[in-house]
Amino acid sequence: MTSTVPNAVQHTDAQPPITMFGPDFPYAYDDFLAHPAGIGQIPATEHGAEVAVIGGGLSGIVAAYELMKMGLRPVVYEADRIGGRLRTVGFEGCDPALTAEMGAMRFPPSSTALQHYIDLVGLETKPFPNPLSPATPSTVVDLKGESHYARTIDDLPPVYREVMDAWNSCLEEGADFSDMNRAMRERDVPRIREIWAKLVEKLDDQTFYGFLCASDSFSSFRHREIFGQVGFGTGGWDTDFPNSILEILRVVYTEADDHHRGIVGGSQQLPLRLWEREPQKLVHWPLGTSLSSLHDGQPRGAVTRLDRTAGNRVTVTDATGDIRTYRAAVFTGQSWLLLSKIACDDALFPIDHWTAMERTHYMESSKLFVPVDRPFWLDKDVTTGRDTMSMTLTDRMTRGTYLLDDGPGKPAVICLSYTWCDDSLKWLPLSPKERMDVMLKSLGEIYPGVDIRKHVIGNPVTVSWENEPYFMGAFKANLPGHYRYQRRLFTHFMQDRLPADKRGLFLAGDDISWTAGWAEGAVQTALNAVWGVMAQFGGATDPTNPGPGDVFDDIAPVELPEG
Taking burial as the number of CB atoms within 10 A of a residue's CB, which of 42, 53, 90, 384 is the most buried? Predict the structure, then answer.
């Protein structure tokens, strides 16, 4: 409910912080980035060589930034705007400081590689107001027309505590939670691999819902229903019920759904600041060089075609008709783009990798934000003494409503609704105004005495990621049986395993990672691709700081039989 970490796990200040490196590939990306030797170098004869980086989201910008520091010349292609699903927008006619996070908006402390770049560009974070978190003044849980006001879980009826205890027991019984969480905190790689290998083999064909039903702790349908509607950490998880339980275990083991923080001023600042940043330590390029300066301020436009050409080169055609050929390229967009928006040569990838991309399962997601004159929800109801309005979890159309403010008396923002999958598709045909009207009606039934509309000071902003032409979904979520596909995509950066005529094009981005939907996965796969490009150009890491490819054979993801 309030935490992904079962009560049985006792943490102390002496323990190292957990990192979101995941059980599949327990590599310490944060240590790799922090090492004074740097993350690798290429021969001087290769300095200035061009590398295509397709996609200007976080993964693409991190990859381009690190390749530039090595002395290569990244050529970034971006169809829309720098940032990808780190998309921060304003409200027309309102103070520019008033923003809405249309994509990623909350980040766990276990995202340690991501935090490296947040710190590097000087951004600040603050606690995100998830349900029942210390940063949230109050939460209302509204199910089947009955509302409960709470500051902590102890303020809710006993059934909610029962549901949380059932989830904790389910994790212990079915997934060795405490043992794995402890091994990951201590970075005990042999133990992590031992536990995970057994679970992958046992659970690859199991849904999240099936995992719950197989547990005696969740024998009650009512408990499963409440768990799906209210969930843990960020809210209800019933939209994830059809997905592989392995996806959920990766989240809870790494505490990815706990203690979230938001980026002050908006998450899109991170890729934008990296784009403009002039590194103090870089090879070949003079001081004052940035990604922006290498591109005269703007990335190249949308990629329309990719071909495999003579000499195992990758040829890129963009929307202007310009054609360039590269010895190496990094593709960071969502995989489905390679099947639809971009005309692709079949020779780009082995057939098994094309199959894996075709089988990728994306989650839909919608949000709608409105600007308001002030955080009126902190006003006290004179009759009850409660907050006028609260962070709200409900089974109504809105599902999750978040209240975001920057202090009393200042303009604020309400995320009226944040939904996924079927709940998101319900909004798709509606205009922003129609969406807002339905949302205000639902919230009016929960808060009958509160006139939210009178506080609105601007037009709503909304997104449905499944309708965004360069995304077609919010993030990947593997279905049962998809483990083998994900392994092919994640390990693609190890190209010495591939035929010579299938090398040179590297996949990256959060849907290539084991932790899709989290910016940390975008960073980690970007670093994998950087290592791959470095190796492609004959480079190497410092022996004191081996990269992900150097240690791959020791910690490679479990390989399930294909027969």
Answer: 53
